[in-house]
Amino acid sequence: MSSYSDAINKYDPVLGLETHVELSTKSKMFCGCATDFGAEPNTQTCPTCLGLPGSLPVANKIGIESTIRIGLALNCTIATYSRFARKNYFYPDMPKDFQTSQYDEPLCSNGYLDVLVDTEEGSKNFRVEIERVHLEEDTGKLTHAGGATGRIHGANYSLVDYNRAGIALVEIVTKPVPDTGEYAPLVAKAYVTELRDLLRGLGVSDVRMEEGSLRCDVNLSLTPKGSKTWGTRTETKNVNSLRSVERAIKSEIERQAIELNNGNTIKQETRHFQEDTGTTRSGRSKEVAEEYRYFPEPDLVPIAPDSKWIEELRSQLPEQPSIGRARLAKEWGFTDLEMRDVATLGAVDLIAETISFGASPSAARKWWAGELARKASEDGVDLTVLKISAKDIARIDVLVTEGKLTDKLARQVIEAILIGEGNPDEVIAKRNLAVVSDDSALLPAIKEAIEANPEAAAKIKEGKVQVVGVIVGAVMKKTGGSADAAKVRELVLKTLGS
Amino acid sequence: MSDLTKLSAFELSQQLQAGSVSAEEVTNAHLDRIEELDKKVQSFLHIDKTGALKQAKEVDSKRKEKQKLSKLAGVPLALKDVLTQKDVPTTCGSKILEGWLPPYDSTVVKNLKNAGIVILGKTNMDEFAMGSSTENSAYFSTKNPWDLTKIPGGSSGGSSAAVSAFFAPLSIGTDTGGSIRQPAAVTGIVGAKPTYGGVSRYGLVAFASSLDQAGPFARTVLDCAMLHEVMAGHDPKDSTSINQRVPDVVAAAQMQDVKGMKIGYIKELNGKGWQPGVINRFNESIELLKSMGAEVKEISLPHSIYALATYYLIAPSEASSNLARFDGMRYGLRVDDGNSSAEEVMNKTREKGFGKEVKRRIMIGTYALSSGYYDAYYAQAQKVRALIAQDLTDAFKEVDVLISPTSPTTAWGLGERVNDPMAMYLADLATLPPSLAGIPAMSVPIGLADEDKLPVGLQIIAPFMQDDRMYRVGGAVEASLKSKWNGLLIDQIPTLGGAS
Ligand SMILES: [Zn+2]
Fold it and tell me: What's the CA gap between B481 and B192, in Å, rounded?
């Protein structure tokens, strides 16, 4: 019996997820600085986001609106009176040594998100209840230099980039999720996936886990079967991909079960997920309650969204991802399973866009969920990160349909686009990849192939046409796959007078 | 004393507009006096001679080109060292900010520059505006120009001393619990704390965010109003800034008429423990106002007796958070032996960079906000704050303005209260209720105390965004006393020496 099923047989996991979402507002949450990802360090800063003495914050209305829209999409109650609060602690990545956040007066509370998970009894709905959705600011980014581990311990010095400091961050906290049993890792992954699609649908965030615009902390505790009291929970940070969400929970269930089986207690602590081993390692101990000295932020006026505004925002919400997916699956002729795969890959929008540029639904799915999903997984990134556009894929599909590219050539074109050689037509011209179908270009290769395979040629001449594949294959090999196979076959047979 | 330094801002503005004097001459006259006499008073932390003269010359050339200029263009001013001015040192009276050159102008400074007001330099203050005597400055103590052995009030003591010593006709202070009104009172000048949100706090280095407010000092009520007008107005960079028209304080200062006004004197701010000379002058003011046709009656603010305790929980709580950013990582002092962790550098920097009073308040505030104590201290203080504000709202249903002595005593001796923080805190007794309520209040001179011949101030408190009312009363009191004394109270100040 595996250690996972052993653990599940003895214990019931209780899940909790805290998700941080960087909003894609043009300017930061409390100042006018730009928020472009990847800019030169400390170029998108001002007195306010650097926390210079005398500077003051002013709340970004779009940030507040986005948070309310997220709350509405998650079926939350929107506060009629809400305040920012200061979370006080010293850390060099925080220019003011307090984070402007929300404490006991969050903008949104008490919602839920339903997720579907494949179980032994078929597809099953799990309701994940939302405790709160609140708005805060991001911190700067620390880079530790000179140490072996890239962590603060052992580093010679650290550099801070405050470009990220002050970017609007929404924190979505679930209530504890019990009764998921062996499906706990899948429920968590489905929740984050669904949340990501929902946020993308709202257009409030890039939701790119690899760039940190969607970050996830996973809380987990185990309850011995039959017991009513929940166990001590750990909080695992650094869970930076959908796959990691599933792995982190699975490994933490196994680890906690072993500890409990050995008669040890679970320490309340922060743990860190490690991609390479798929396990969590111990971080800061949380046995001493953290002292953040929260109090209402006196530099910002309270937010009092009026009901008219909230109803207006509610009426403008896009359709829910699950409803949208069902509609698209029907339209595109995908099976439920195909659609769920596509959704899990985060490829729905990309496929929709590819179709809008003229590709067939099946071809769009074939490329994004096949070749490109494999590439993304090799690189450990999201599909959206790949340096190829929906327009490129649509063009490739058109060329394949027109017989100007073979499948094999198409793959080479994709390969070239991904390394930055240009759009499909530029790559084809540069690499000379177009399908060769005119006789004069093919005949020398055919002649050569016949000479190299005299036995096959003789058989074909005798009328054993089924052997033609040997010669066609040789020609294809010779031309590096760029020949039109049907045309080659026709010419071989013609040459051999069969 | 040069004639130019004797003039009020209003008089200077008249002469400048008439072209009978240049801004450069006016600036030089004040810089000369500072150079000659500030070694006695020590009101400035930094004198920006080059910057001031450059500004003055700009005003003169604009005037020559017949460009439209504001009324106060070319009039010099002293700025409390808590407001940022681009590329000019801003220390907040603390060692922790020594050498810091702000890369930006506060909105107040931007408004001053737009008005062509010449900024002579930065004035001394209690470290991070915490104090009532300016003795908490990490650099030196400022002396009261009436008596150089006395304190000039605080925390804006450098600004009050500079104006009463005729180093500048105008100065700017900030008031969190009385830091403009009390120094104005003890140096015999006028000082006003506008409605909270009336003047932008952008670029005002925060002590207690929900209380801090910058405001004007001057030797006359009209000058004070003219500067108030320049400073005030909505600022989109300050979320707590009020988006309403600034009350016409200049017109109110010139009315000189209180006939029919209802004025309440505060029952609780009087009597036991108050200096008799202060009470005598205050009682005379009540009679004066009555004689001018005002209806004066006693008003009780029952919760005002809790103002001191409330203030000394809320202000330090906010300060403990506001002052967290001084950690040696980005600007100002950094105590680093090259071998310490970030945490050790933060600790050592704060240990060395902050003075005793600042540390005391950071500790009080940290304690009051801690879990387990928050409800008993910070949260409770907020509730009492609301009750104090309600008392004032109720009072203004009966009267147009409220009055009290500005401070329980006149200026005390340097060093007298440095080891007794409670005695120091009591100086703010009368000024705290309007601070907690966010309403405007000002101090105008009403004479010298019999015991020590030192100035006494009258505090005038007005309702939210009705700053003009206090200027109306202040202007009338000033006019009446001026005819009685045949001049301003400040004209009775003993000479500091120099060519007068
Ligand atoms: Zn900024």
Answer: 19
Chosen domain end from A276, A311, A346: A311
- Cα–Cα nearest to A470, from A484, A462, A459: A459
A86–chain B Cβ distance below 8 A for any pair: yes
CA-based nearest residue to B228, from B57, B465, B486:
B465
Both structure tokens of A379: 């690189």
Are A417 and A446 in a shared domain? no
Considering only CB atoms, B369 lies closest to which of A53, A289, A295, namely A295
Alpha helices (runs of H) in A35-183, residue ranges in sequence order: 61-73
Q: Is A90 within 8 Å of chain B by CB?
A: yes
**pLDDT digit string, tens, across residues B52-96:** 999 999 999 999 999 999 999 999 999 999 999 999 999 999 999
**B343: which residues sit within 8 A by CB, 6+ positions away?**
A90
The domain total for chain A is 3
Q: Taking CB atoms and an 8 Å limit, are A54 and B369 in contact across chains?
A: no
Return the CATH number at A476. Answer: 1.10.10.410
Which one is catalytic: B13, B137, B156, B179? B179
For residues A45 and A164, state if they share a domain: yes
| Residue A460 and residue A330 share a domain | no
Q: Considering A431, A451, A476, which residue would you say is the last residue of a domain? A: A431
ipTM here:
0.95
What's B128's domain CATH number? Answer: 3.90.1300.10
Active site residue B80: yes
Q: Is residue B69 part of a domain?
A: yes
Give chain A positions within 8 Å (CB) of B204.
54
Q: What does the pLDDT look like over B460-498, one tens digit per residue?
A: 999 999 999 999 999 999 999 999 999 999 999 999 865
Q: Looking at the structure, do residues A361 and A263 belong to the same domain, yes or no? A: no
B129 touches chain A (CB under 8 A): no
Query: In chain A, count of helices (H) and strands (E)?
Result: 17, 14
Same domain, residue pair A356 and A469: no
HSE (CB half, 13 Å, CA atoms) of A267?
12
Helix (H, G, I), strand (E, B) or coil at A59: coil
Q: Are residues A28 and A112 in the same domain?
A: yes
- pTM, two decimals, is 0.88
Whether B283 maps to a domain, the answer reads yes
- Is B2 part of the annotated catalytic residue set? no
Q: SS3 helix, strand, coil % of chain A, rounded to 5?
A: 40, 20, 35
> Which DSSP letter does residue A181 get?
G
CB A114 within 8 A of CB A154: no
Range of the domain at A371: 319-431
Question: Which one-letter DSSP state was computed for residue B143?
Answer: P
B72 at interface of A, judged by CB pairs closer than 8 A: no
pLDDT bracket for residue A150 (50, 70, 90): low
How many structural domains compose chain B?
1
